[in-house]
Description:
It is built from no helices and five strands. Helices cover 0% and strands 23% of the residues.
Amino acid sequence: MEDPSRAFDLVLLEFLVCLLSKKPLRYEASTTELINDKLEIAFPIINGDPNMILQATRMTHQNKKKKWGSTRS
């Protein structure tokens, strides 16, 4: 269980970016994660500390299929 005295500091969102895309992340309070919506990955936050190690990420939409063929010319 997460320690309430170690809540995630939202000010960090101004400085943290996704390691893969270098784009800003979105905080999701319900799952306590930092989300990259475009890449559909989530970085966990443990006791207020974001775990930015790529091996710790999870896919947010594992079953979502993309149609690449319709966007290629």
